Amino acid sequence: MERNRLLLLAAAAAAAIVAVVVIVVVAGGGSSTTQPTTTQTTRGGGTEATRTFAGVAQHGATLGKASAPATMYVFEDPQCPYCRQWNIDTLPTVVDNYVRAGRVKLVYRGIQIIGANSIVGISAIYAAGLQGKAWQMAEALYERQGAENSGWITLGVVRQAAGEIHANVAKLVKDMKSDAVLTEMRASAGQAQSLGVQGTPTFGIQKPLGTIEQLQISSLDPSGFTPALDAALS
């Protein structure tokens, strides 16, 4: 499938994240020690980035009820057009039919597949997670997605996206190079490597007391995705 892209996640690459974030993301300032928050909004108006997740609790990179019996890990690159396709076409169905119902919770796992500019977007998404808005931020960036490796993920775009989802923009930008965000990025890279992720989007399912297994799907649209999810949850 054309969506598959070679993933290089050696230990050196994980270590390089720190240097790239400091250089590419934002200059100056120190690390934030602010603890992650949980938010819950009211379902209703707003943009797609706010409507899709309205009324669903978030904590850090996790979307859904903590008591959900299964966890789905979503490995994405914000520059990936196939990730954008899944988020627009299928994620709302997953949120409505599985997350809201308490059947599964989602964990965002941002990984660099396409290029260094992806790190800016990933760090912004994890920084938004410190405000309980990681999934909104990912959606807002997909709404603005440009050509791969064109450098479209600028701080200006990040600020616009953060404003759309009603995040604290200044805090989000500062937190992009915080220790908490760097820890999430390293953890995502390591988890992707251990799971053998070779492209984005890739989905991992973990049931109680079980290990994470890749979800084998026939397509990224709901008709090809939800039967595979149903089978994995049964």
Report the total helices. 10
Structural class based on helices, strands and sheet pairing = alpha+beta
**Cα end-to-end separation:** 27 Å
Strand content is: 5-15%
Work out the number of β strands. Answer: 7
The main sheet orders its strands as 1-2-3-5-4-6-7
Question: Helix and strand string, N-terminal first?
Answer: HEHEEEHHEHHHHHEEH
Shape field? globular
Poorly predicted regions: 1-45
Mean pLDDT: 85
Largest sheet: 7 strands, mixed
Radius of gyration using CA atoms only: 16 Å
Using brief descriptors, characterize the structure shown.
alpha+beta; seven-stranded mixed beta sheet; 234 residues; globular; 7 strands
What does this structure look like?
There is one protein chain. With 234 residues, the protein is α+β, with helices and mostly antiparallel strands. The chain has a seven-stranded mixed β-sheet.
Q: TL;DR of this structure?
A:
The protein is an alpha+beta fold.
